[in-house]
Amino acid sequence: MVLLCVAAFFIFGGGSLFWSIPPTYLGQEAAAAGIAVISSLGILGGFASPTLIGWIKSVTGSIQLGLLALTALVICGGLTILLGLPKSAVRVGTIDDASAH
């Protein structure tokens, strides 16, 4: 139960971090279109992942291999974000001089 709670924390907590990335790369005019494209790809993933798991299960006879394939995709996506995000986009511990007073 504790591990499920920790996993849920990272799954739901990662969403707020993820959605702060598109405005870093996109201007004001392109941000809405970029977020729409990202959302559309996410919805497509919601269709493709069960299809992929079913196809892998029918080919190999094991649902575990399908789940491992999706786990590998999630890990690749996480690594892409970690390695692809420029250091200039990371704002750690910065406080505005005006708000510090």
From TrEMBL:
Annotated TM spans: 30-53, 65-85
Q: Which InterPro entries match?
A: MFS_dom (IPR020846), MFS_trans_sf (IPR036259)
* Superkingdom assignment: Bacteria
What would be an example GO MF term here? transmembrane transporter activity
Boundaries of every Major facilitator superfamily (MFS) profile domain copy: 1-89
- Alphabetically list the UniProt keywords: Membrane, Plasmid, Transmembrane, Transmembrane helix
Keyword Iron attributed: no
Q: In its UniProt entry, what is this protein called?
A: Major facilitator superfamily (MFS) profile domain-containing protein
What organism is listed for this UniProt entry?
Paraburkholderia largidicola
Organismal lineage: Bacteria, Pseudomonadati, Pseudomonadota, Betaproteobacteria, Burkholderiales
